[in-house]
């Protein structure tokens, strides 16, 4: 059974519309794709299709670039976040373990 994607994740927006929404040039958007910061899908005719999530990511990338953050650092951050979101059960387990450790450490020292 295929998992239903949120409307925010459906790749339906053209690069021209993304450019208008983000204020980025088409060239900048393609550059971010080359740097693997964004991954559009391709239509049967080869045109790029983006999602609303992609638009949000591009706006965040543009903000970070304005602050002087290099694309390599942005990519590292994106990969970290993607890795965490892939295994939410493991993340919950780590968070719970941290809470238990903090609780018992506090009781033991308090």
TrEMBL record:
InterPro entries given in the database record: DNA-bd_dom_put_sf, MerR-type_HTH_dom, MerR_fam
Keyword Nucleotide-binding: no
Ranges for domain HTH merR-type: 12-80
Keywords associated with the record: DNA-binding, Repressor, Transcription, Transcription regulation
Family annotation (PROSITE patterns): HTH_MERR_1, HTH_MERR_2
SUPFAM superfamilies tied to this protein: Putative DNA-binding domain
Record-given protein name: MerR family transcriptional regulator
Organism of origin: Metabacillus sediminis
């Amino acid at each position: 059974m295929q998992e239903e994607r949120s409307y925010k994740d459906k790749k339906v927006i053209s690069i021209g519309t993304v450019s208008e929404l983000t204020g980025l040039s088409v060239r900048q958007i393609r550059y971010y794709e080359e740097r693997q910061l964004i991954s559009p899908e391709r239509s049967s005719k080869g045109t790029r299709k983006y999602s609303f999530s992609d638009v949000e990511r591009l706006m965040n990338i543009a903000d970070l670039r304005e602050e002087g953050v290099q694309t390599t650092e942005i990519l590292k951050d994106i990969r970290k976040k993607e890795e965490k979101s892939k295994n939410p059960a493991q993340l919950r387990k780590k968070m719970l373990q941290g809470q238990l450790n903090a609780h018992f450490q506090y009781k033991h020292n308090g």
